[in-house]
Amino acid sequence: MKSLFLPVGLLLCFILAWSFPEPGTAAKELGLIPWMVVVIFLVNGYQTNLSELPKSRSFLYALIGGGFLSLIISPLIGLGVAQAMALPAGIALGIIVTATVSPTLSTCIVMTQLSGGYPLWSLMMTVILNIAGVFTIPFMLGYVMEGSGEIRIEPLSLLLTLILLVLLPFLLGIVARSLSSLDPRSVLLQYLPSSCIILTVWMALSDSNELFQTLQALTLVQIAIATLIIHFGLMALSYLLSQILKLEPQARIAMLFTLSQKTLPVSISVLAALDMPIGEAVLTCVLFHFLMLLTDSLLTPRLAIKSAK
Questions:
Q1: DSSP state of 104
Q2: Cα–Cα distance for residue pair 89/76, rounded to 1 Å
Q3: Is the pLDDT of residue 308 over 70?
């Protein structure tokens, strides 16, 4: 049920935004999108237990190398793919933003566990890289977007926005955990972040309804090809890095999923911070997320079999 909640919710977003855009547009005009992002990271902070941080030297090396791959190399791959495929500005923005953001906040952990990897490695790498990403994303995005020649980004303005929307709520959530008796694994907290993602995407897509009416099949194919190139390219580099570090198979699986997946909430928060139309870019981010979940869900059983052997 939980694994289907977000994909099914996003599918309903497309249907509602396509058929009845007015409520979503009205909600966006009320300024609700930034508050959705704040709630997402407040809950994620509340669910994080920093005392579980692995202390082995191999984890430290994997974290440093993985951070460089996920936060520095990945945006350059996104830029290269967007330029090589000559993607339209809105699609290119979505692809580059997705490639620039930090690892996804939940699915990589679940898939690592199902594949027989170290879920604790995936969890803590995700938490640390999301905090680090607040400071790397504005400057890497500014650099690669300047290289694309399409859109200019103000890094300092974006940094301030990410601190307010992502970092501060996340830290407040960590503090609130120590002061509250609410179970971090409660049903409410498990479904609240996904619900906020669904509502955010619904508002953004509804606001760009006219744009989606003119989308062509070729555009969707371009998004799919760019997504698969970036995702599997990062997987290949993650595997190579784990081989260089001589990690055991369980740690290798954790790196494979964590460093190749990208977080939808941060992508949406970055786009929400930009003072420009973002409908096409949001659609690209959502499709990237769908394809990423689909391909990795098909890969998980095969990795689990190999891990068992």
A1: -
A2: 16
A3: no
Phi, psi of 261 (to 5 degrees): -90, 150
User: Average pLDDT for residues 279-305, to the nearest whole number?
Assistant: 79
Torsion of CA 59, 261, 11, 216, to 10 degrees: 180
Number of domains the chain is built from: 1
Distance CA 66, CA 42 (A): 25
Average predicted confidence (pLDDT) for the chain: 84
Residue 200 lies inside a defined structural domain of this protein: no
The single residue listed with the structure tokens 């709630």 is: 39
CATH of the domain at 225: 1.20.1530.20
Report the alpha-carbon distance of residue 122 to residue 54 in Å, rounded.
Answer: 10
Instruction: Give the pLDDT band of residue 212 (cuts 50, 70, 90).
Output: low
Let me know: does 47 contact 123? Beta carbons within 8 Å.
Answer: no
This prediction's pTM:
0.79
CA atoms of 260 and 248, how far apart (whole Å): 18
Using alpha carbons, select from 269, 268, 277, 261 the residue that is nearest to residue 227: 261
Euclidean distance between the first and the last CA atom of the chain, given in angstroms as a whole number? 29
Contact indicator for 266, 130 with CB cutoff of 8 Å:
yes
Burial class (CB in 10 A: 0-12, 13-18, 19+), 76: middle
Closest to 106 in 3D by CA, of 258, 288, 255, 236 = 258
Q: Which domain holds residue 120?
A: 30-50+58-173+215-308
Q: Does 257 map to a domain? A: yes
